[in-house]
């Protein structure tokens, strides 16, 4: 049977199949403003070709809409790109990043609540596009590290200056990276894991 | 940099969220759906009965080996919530098994983090 000629997606390619022993998964969310390289980072470390999942949500009109007696409802499709890294035969890490509007990510139930942590990807030419998402992570108590994606021609600033502009406490790691490079993106994830590890060992 | 400066925010919990969004589930109430995460791993435990709708049959074929709900959603080209509805029925019929994800708790599991670090270093 030639499964690939089917009209519907046949499922994972042979090389994308997980071992039957895969018992549990963890996830990390990559956030940041539009065009900072989130999808690039997912693609550079993923062992599978990045996939897209989506959710359809309706937003009920609130506030001023109520004055008119008929609340408006708008359907919004939130798309999420993701990749995968097999850690062991039993454990799988999923990375989620999205090209969409960040305010919707936080309404996707469980996306951040269950995540081990987040990577905030920033572009020094447009630092302010990351302000809102950092604030939302802080409000929710989601641990994160900041990775400065080194775009060609983008000015490099000392970490201390970035920390001051982003108003981040000393303990939150800030590092430079090149999201196109697998090793560099991997180092960002390692930095997040070390940070999470330090939180678990720090005296409370 | 542009000179703009951010101001730190304090943790408030999710209750501070003023926006109200509702997931479209095709009539199935949230309470009736199984608690499935994007990264819950699904494994088939049986064959699709001849009466199974095509989406469920396709889903069962795909998860002959473990696949996350997110991957099933991507391959089936169906929204996450629609896949969870299909899976709820398959779980009730014991045709699939769900392997729950490890989620962040107040204190991260150090053994788990060490395993992830070790795995990443092998990349």
From TrEMBL, chain A:
Pfam family, one: ATP_bind_1
SUPFAM superfamilies hit by this protein: P-loop containing nucleoside triphosphate hydrolases
InterPro entries named among the record's database cross-references: Gliding_Motility_GTPase, Gpn, P-loop_NTPase
Molecular function per GO: ATP binding
Domain of life the protein comes from: Bacteria
Record key words, sorted: ATP-binding, GTP-binding, Hydrolase, Nucleotide-binding
Coiled coil: none
UniProt family annotation: Belongs to the GPN-loop GTPase family.
Protein name (Swiss-Prot/TrEMBL): ATP-binding protein
Species in which this protein is naturally found: Streptomyces physcomitrii
Automatic annotation (TrEMBL), chain B:
Domain of life of the native organism: Bacteria
InterPro entries from the UniProt entry: DUF742, WH_DNA-bd_sf
Pfam families assigned: DUF742
SUPFAM superfamilies linked to this entry: Winged helix' DNA-binding domain
PANTHER family per the UniProt record, alphabetical: DUF742 DOMAIN-CONTAINING PROTEIN
Name by which UniProt lists this protein: DUF742 domain-containing protein
The species this protein was found in: Streptomyces physcomitrii
